[in-house]
Amino acid sequence: MKEKKAWSINGFLGVVIIAIFVALAVLSLFYEYIIAGIVSALLAALLASGITIVQPNQAKVVIFFGKYMGSITDSGLFLTVPLTIRQSVSLRVRNFNSSKLKVNDVEGNPIEIAAVVVFKVIDSAKAVFDVDNYEEFVEIQSETAIRHVATNYPYDNFSDSDLSLRGNADIVSEELKNNLQERLNVSGVKVLEARLTHLAYSTEIASAMLQRQQATAILSARRKIVEGAVSMAKMAVEQLEKDEVLDLDEERKVNMVNNLMVAIISDRGAQPVLNAGTLY
To answer: Considering the domain boundaries, does residue 132 fall inside one?
Structure first.
């Protein structure tokens, strides 16, 4: 099924034509032309059944005895095929906010996730005929797509090379949008945006995962600090030797590097120790 344009003319012109047939019917009956009067009245009633009003950002799907005749997408007053059913379909932008879903991420951790989906109908024929209820279809497929995407990523990952739900929200949202669009093509719906609105560990493991998250963050930070400390100690030794400020043997290099590492890595600021000599 594919949307096509239905036959229609300006509705005000249609009203004028109907008024002319009504006037002919009245005149015919007045002058006792019974048959002409009845025919004119029937034609007026037949054309009147084709008068329809289309609101802005709305489409009218025209159905003639079970056959799809086309859609009227322009707003205004129109005269279309008489004796037809005209079903309204909104073309306005709408959004669907999913409920909080409990799913397992790629590592098997239970998480709570929710998303908002912004969409609009771009093919009224598909929306009416290819699915039973396109609004309900959008809701169900949105939740299915959210579950599918959530199972492909871990909740959190402190490695710069890996993607995660919390750390790469834009990438996850784009994948969610593309995945959902593939599912909704059959319904004539276009997904304008899909973004996560809620993301958290499930309550039964939230406390334990928070401790794990904190421990992982501390280890990651410590790793960065150690890498920086090693680099700084190396630069200090190389600079001293280059400027010939000190002539350090291997033992003194080891002691200086050790002191620098302790000073940089320590959680507290380094306290200088002064040698005041020996008291007698």
So the answer is: yes
